Amino acid sequence: MKLKKYLKQILKTLLFVVLLFTFFFFYLQSQVEEFLKGSTTFTSRYEEIEKFQVPDLLLCMKPGTKRSVMTKFNYNLDEVFIFYDERESYLKHNLTIWQAFQELTYKYKDDFEIHSGVDGWHPGDEKLTIKAVESIATLYHGMCFLLIIDEEIKVSSNYAFTLTFSDTLDNEDIPNKINLYLVSKETWYGLITAEWPRKENLFIEKIEVDNDPVILTEVGIAEKEVEFLQSDDHQDYEECILKLFGKTSCFPIIFNFPKVIQKLPPCKYWNDTWGVKDKIFKKKKTEFIKCLVPKHAKIYETSVYQNKINGQAHQTNNRSLGFFFYGASNMKKIKEEVYVISSTVFIGSIGGSLGLFFGFSFLACCSDLIDKLVLRLCVPTDT
Asked: In this structure, which topology does domain 47-338 adopt according to CATH?
């Protein structure tokens, strides 16, 4: 009998050790590693809508510089020329680097204008007003232009805009193409430096348009919302950049934001510009990337068609481009970033595995504890 008892005890001990080894090395270790990684994924759902938020438009000319001025400064590169001009060729013309950048790139009102509707074709159901146009200096696209619209329209509706180059703009300076980005106020900042905290197409939708005056670009818009985990819910990009500047005497060309301009003058020379730029991009790169991550973002998916316009008005005007926008879907996609293994899932998974391998449960443990506590308290003591 004693031999059977000892054998039984030895087998139970061996089984416990095997189960413990299996649990730890083949399950617990991998679960803890995955949990500590903080890996995320996205869940998706769809919501029916009657209206959608009209995206703001970010226009960038391609090339982003005027050919005539490039010749004047003896530049033969593309938009990044001025950032690598250690000779500072613009000083021969008594210009600072900021003044030279402004002369080389396009200006709203002076070089082009935008108005509602497409002449000779379609005025659009909605006559939307552009609330403001902000000039955005970029590292690779010259001066881009943010058209702030800030309106909601019905999904079944549409609107149109025409871009017209000024008669005073030399023919050689009319760009070959226009890059049109559909953006929201949270999503376009990465375009300034081509730095993206995630995939580029997660934030903005790019449409490249040939400068052909008899082509109308039709754009179907589907709205999408994304909510991210690791970001500041009340983050202001401009304030975030200002903090990174620290004790700086000027701002480099590519940070010409209203809040920055109010506090700092533009850098005048190449060394100053690169000094501040390197301070952010090399020494504080991680912090800079964090500035670009929004908590919530409206993103737009598009379907693009280009058609010939038969209107006589457009065939005789070689300086205008038409854009027609419409709601493409009454279903809005909502994506939410979640942890692959959240705290709740981790605890539940470990608890379930303990029960599977060892028969562990809080109920059984607590019941045993209560039994022992009651037994101890109720046993009479000797007097």
From this structure: Acid-sensing ion channels like fold (2.60.470)
Using one digit for the tens of pLDDT, what is the confidence trace for 315-372?
A: 445 578 888 899 888 999 898 888 877 667 666 666 666 666 666 666 666 776 777 7
Distance CA 170, CA 167 (A): 8
pLDDT at 316: 42
SS3 5: helix
- Spatial neighbors of 378 by CB under 8 A, at least 6 apart, are none
Sequence spans of domains, the chain: 24-39+342-383, 47-338
Give the pTM. 0.75
Beta strands of the chain (E only): which ranges? 40-48, 51-53, 56-62, 112-116, 132-137, 143-148, 152-154, 158-165, 177-183, 205-210, 215-227, 296-308, 320-327, 331-339
**Is the CB of residue 324 less than 8 Å from the CB of residue 217?**
yes
Encoded amino acid at 103, one letter: E
Cβ-proximal residues to 57 (8 Å cutoff; 6+ apart), any chain:
146, 147, 149, 161, 180, 181, 182, 183
